[in-house]
Structure formats: C-alpha cells, structure tokens
C-alpha cells in the first residue's frame, strides 16, 4: 500500500520541489500542505492532493496529519518557529506519524552557533526527544536565494555584506532529491546530513555567472553591515529576524560556509548541481 506523506511548506522553494519529485510515483500518496487555494492548483497530481494547512490553526493541523506516515517538516521564518514546529510534532505523534524529515540548516549542530541554527537545533532535539524516527537535512545557503532574496537589482547590482566570503551554495532540487530518498526508504532513519553544492564560490563569481547566462550586467557590491541591516529594517522585517540574518551574513563573510560535503552524491547517486548549471536552468529569472 502507498505510504502517505504530508509535505509542509509545499508552495515554498524546497517543499514545491519535494512535491514535484514525488509526483507520479505509485508507492506514495502526497498531501501538499497549502494555506491558499490559489496556490494549490499547480501542485495537484494523480497522487498529490492539496490539504489546508496553517501553522497557527491547530484544527487544520490535526486534520492534515490524520492517517499520515511520513512528514516533511518546513518551519516558517518567524520568531515563534520552534513553538509552531513543536506543536506540529506533537500532533503528528498523536496521529501516529512514524518518521519526520526536517528541513534544517547547516550549522544547526554548532554550539553555541547563531540564532538561525539554534532555532533549528532546538526543534531537531524536540523531534529526537519525541521518540519518532527522524532525518535532519542541514543544507547550506540555497542557490535559489539569487532569485528570491538577492537577485541583481535594476542597476545590475547584488548588494550583500559578504566581503570575499565563499559559500558552497546548494540547488533546491538536490535538497529535494535527498528529502525524497529519506521519505521513501529506511536507509536514512535517525541520521543528519550537511548538504552542500559541489564547490564554494563568492558572490562576485555568482554575479559573473548570472551576467553570462542572462546577458545582462550583474555586479557584486560588498556593502557595509550597517547598510544591509538598514535595508532589511526598511523592508519591514522584524528586528529579531534582521539580527538573525546579520549573524548569518557574518559567518558567510568569514568564509565559514565554504565546506563541501559528499552527502548529496552518496545519498542520491549523482553529483550535486553546479551553480553554472543552475544558472543556465533558471536564466529566465534574471532577464
Ligand atoms: N534560504 C536558505 O538559503 C536556507 C538555507 C538553509 C536552510 N534554510 C531553511 O529552509 C526553510 C525555508 O524553506 P523554503 O525556502 O523552502 O521556504 P519558503 O520558500 O520561504 O516557503 C515557506 C513555506 O512555508 C509556508 N508557510 C509560511 N508560513 C506558514 C504558516 N504560518 N502556516 C503554514 N505554512 C506556512 C509558505 O506558504 P505560502 O506560500 O502560503 O507563504 C511556504 O510554502 C527555513 O527553515 C530556513 O531556515 C534556508
């Protein structure tokens, strides 16, 4: 009988790719958690059914987890993400969910680490302590960030306070492929993986690649920390989340995000995507 999987964050960068990768398989039935009907349509498939899900609404969570065996857990980027995640774990356990595959972040196991890592670590520990089977995916920064968060602006510039820090960015499709492996086999039970792309590169190098594939000028401008902080505050981001992002920028600038692991290759059997391939595949996003 097909295994029922609930994918949270199903409309997001990683969850949407997990749903796509599970679509059409006859060994799984997928519930794609969504909070707006408008976004549900494109997720539908013969084995994929959208289900109403909102982290702040317990009654919807209870309905969504009923009868589910495996859960792909993505927490929202909010200061109460640990509490929201823990409540979902409680409901999942009560409903008989067996295995949680949690989207975490590289560095979640570093003590004391940064706030973003601590949020993930606290929830990882909560899941491990729940007695449920788990798999923790700890990816580095996503290549999609160059589309979603820091694409070249109208002036062609990418403004980041990263200095010459190099990072082994990873493509979301590689994270999704690892998630699918964890959700569809027992080989990754009670394991945690640091997931990276195949090489570390600077924002300047990324800008050059984006410029080549898009045919438009793209430059990196290394901005002072205070300017980056102000820009996020001006966008209306809560101060606590801005502080968390500034800590992340600092470790990226210091070059701590440059480690390359072989986890994607070992788990999926294929090498992770290079940024050049990713950029060619997504060139339209920068045109
Ligand atoms: N970006 C990076 O470089 C990076 C690196 C490592 C780890 N991570 C981790 O990855 C996670 C984010 O994954 P992502 O980028 O795939 O997410 P995302 O694209 O930001 O999407 C967030 C998803 O969560 C849903 N969501 C938000 N608030 C919700 C709520 N209150 N109730 C129900 N659903 C809600 C969104 O639904 P809507 O579409 O309706 O908004 C969307 O599907 C975070 O935990 C982050 O720490 C990110």
UniProtKB/TrEMBL annotation:
Top-level taxon of origin: Bacteria
Pfam families recorded: NmrA
Location of the NmrA-like domain: 2-251
InterPro entries in the cross-refs: Ergot_Alk_Oxidoreductase, NAD(P)-bd_dom_sf, NmrA-like
Coiled-coil stretches: none
PANTHER family per the UniProt record, alphabetical: PRESTALK A DIFFERENTIATION PROTEIN A (PTHR43162:SF1), PTHR43162
Protein known as: SDR family oxidoreductase
Organism: Archangium lansingense
Lineage, broadest ranks: Bacteria, Pseudomonadati, Myxococcota, Myxococcia, Myxococcales
């Amino acid at each position: 009988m097909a295994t029922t999987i609930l994918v949270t964050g199903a409309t997001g960068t990683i969850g949407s790719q997990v749903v796509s990768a599970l679509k059409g398989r006859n060994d799984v039935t997928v519930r794609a958690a969504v909070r707006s009907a408008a976004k549900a349509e494109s997720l539908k498939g013969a084995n994929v059914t959208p289900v109403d899900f909102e982290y702040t609404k317990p009654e919807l969570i209870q309905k969504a987890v009923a009868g589910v065996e495996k859960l792909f857990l993505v927490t929202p980027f909010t200061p109460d993400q640990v509490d929201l995640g823990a409540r979902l774990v409680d409901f999942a356990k009560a409903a008989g969910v067996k295995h949680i595959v949690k989207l975490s972040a590289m560095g979640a196991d570093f003590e004391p680490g940064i706030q973003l890592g601590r949020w993930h670590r606290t929830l990882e520990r909560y899941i491990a302590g729940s007695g449920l089977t788990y798999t923790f995916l700890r990816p580095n920064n996503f290549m999609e960030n160059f589309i979603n968060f820091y694409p070249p602006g109208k002036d062609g510039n990418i403004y980041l306070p990263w200095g010459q820090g190099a990072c082994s960015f990873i493509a979301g499709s590689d994270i999704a492929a690892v998630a699918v492996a964890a959700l569809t086999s027992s080989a990754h039970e009670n394991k945690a993986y640091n997931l990276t792309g195949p090489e570390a590169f600077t924002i300047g190098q990324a800008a050059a690649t984006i410029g080549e594939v898009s045919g438009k000028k793209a430059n990196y401008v290394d901005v002072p920390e205070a300017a980056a902080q102000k820009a996020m505050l001006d966008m209306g981001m809560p101060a606590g989340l801005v502080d968390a992002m500034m800590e992340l920028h600092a470790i990226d600038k210091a070059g701590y995000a440059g480690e390359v692991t072989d986890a994607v290759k070992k788990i999926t059997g294929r090498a992770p995507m290079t940024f050049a391939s990713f950029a060619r595949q997504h060139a339209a996003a920068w045109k």
